[in-house]
Amino acid sequence: MALPGCQDKCGNMSIPYPFGTGKGCFREPFNVTCNETGAYLASTEVRLLEISLTLGEVRVQNPHIDWQCNYTNGKNSSSGLNPLTLDSFHKVSDTKNKMTSIGCATLAMVMGRTKSKKQLEYPTANTCFSFCIDASSVDDVTECSGLGCCQAPVSGNVSAFITVSLPVPDLYNTTIQSFSPCSYSFVSEKDSFKFDRSYVNSTSFASTHTDGVPLVLDWVVGNGSCSEATKMGSQYACQAMNSECIDVSNGPGYRCNCSQGYEGNPYLQGGCQDINECEPPNQSLYPCKGNCRNTEGSYTCSCPSGFRSDDPKS
Fold this sequence. Notes:
Membrane topology: Single-pass membrane protein
Pfam family, one: EGF_CA
Domain EGF-like: 274-313
Mean pLDDT: 89
Strand content: 35-45%
Structural class: mainly beta
GO molecular function: calcium ion binding; polysaccharide binding
Protein name: EGF-like domain-containing protein
Radius of gyration: 25 Å
Number of strands: 23
Number of domains: 4
Helix content: under 10%
């Protein structure tokens, strides 16, 4: 999975090429730094949780949670604006993430930065509103319903973003302030977040998420299209025989996959190997109740001797 002679793991996490740690072990900008606390994407210094070659995704720990507290004694505090800026090869997944806001009478916004096809930068914004009149009005559920917690989608092709949560002056009163002084907003992997009503009227959310929240990033190995990349000679990233180029949908760029019937690492020469569909554990994934014979990139399935394909006993 890694280049020969290069470190293929950081702790328990695999680091497949084009990612790598150490000089000569990665393709720019997929440098990974590894220390006793974990693996980090060097370009943004966010902690890596998982790398997927097949999906073209990385799960990271997003440390940026926006918060604002307005206490009845007049003391106020906030996190300030904490943007997360990615390199041009990584984008926030618009299908795996959502913005979440926790609070009462709170308007939250995620503002992103993206580029048009002409490489002109422009902003994007998504908002949601959460409301509750007292602690009892917040449902005891794990999903955001708009009462004490709301969610909004994240725009595609976003390479940098900030989140902001603010109390709505005409609705945010001393009653709400007394039991829900703080609001939070963040972008995270939508399947990983579970709401708890205690988050609304205490500081338990901040205390239980000091390291941040999981976030999914889409990555590309090159910023051009497949038609452009295949003309790049040795700079073309899909190095393995039996690999193919894929144009991504979340922003410009391409990545590589092993062709159907093969598995492994398409970014390494010889990295895509034939799948033997007739042997465990692959056997359970490919339907054949007769005689299975592996072929290069595929397999054949025939009836046992003495049986026909239309025989009800076969």
